[in-house]
Design goal:
207 residues, mainly alpha, 9 helices
């Protein structure tokens, strides 16, 4: 939970930039979801790209001039494909909420799907970052981060629950809450990665 507090403090300290970033991120996600056939892939790719932008902004206190290196782009594309089911889970959860059934019937299932989506997003975004920082193969990075996520399941579960609840509440107000929720999600992803990185490195050394 230390990562959540750090992210919240950073959000408060940079609230203007964070809300502008959140507005841009929300518009991007809403726009690409209407592109036929490839919307889920594009949402996955955009989330990973926005995560990279947020990390750079937190570390350098500046917006990146160049997002991808030629060597890293294939890794982003592959991870986006692996992240496809997460985008599908996210879409299914929102779709269930918009069904004509009573909210008390749809909210628990939607919350569960959102928790799974957030959990896998954290695992895969952390795996991608570890792969890019250490030159470990992407497959090994996913395996190791996945194992660490099981050992640190409580932290992953709590953060997934919080963000699933925030996304659920945002969807009830036409998604406007995502303007604040998305940058906070990316900030938590950054600080949470720094928190688990020593465990991931230790796991790699033992492998």
């Amino acid at each position: 939970m230390n990562s959540f507090k750090q992210a919240l403090n950073h959000f408060k300290g940079t609230w203007k930039d964070s809300l502008i970033f959140g507005l841009c991120a929300t518009l991007i996600v809403f726009l690409v979801r209407y592109i036929p056939y490839v919307s889920a892939f594009l949402i996955s790719f955009c989330l990973l790209a926005l995560q990279e932008i947020a990390q750079y902004k937190v570390e350098k206190n500046a917006w990146p001039r160049e997002l991808f290196h030629k060597k890293s782009l294939p890794s982003y594309l592959i991870t986006s494909l692996i992240l496809l089911p997460t985008s599908v889970l996210l879409g299914s959860a929102i779709g269930i909420l918009q069904s004509p059934q009573a909210l008390w019937m749809t909210a628990p299932l939607s919350l569960g799907l959102l928790m799974l989506a957030v959990y896998f997003y954290f695992v895969l975004s952390h795996s991608l970052r570890f792969h890019l920082e250490t030159n470990e193969s992407l497959g090994k990075a996913i395996d190791v981060v996945g194992l660490v996520s099981i050992k640190s399941f409580k932290n992953y579960f709590v953060l997934s629950f919080y963000f699933a609840l925030l996304i659920l509440l945002s969807s009830l107000i036409a998604g406007l809450g995502l303007i604040a929720v998305l940058p906070l999600l990316f900030y938590v992803g950054h600080f949470f990665y720094l928190e688990i990185k020593p465990l991931v490195l230790l796991k790699v050394q033992k492998a």
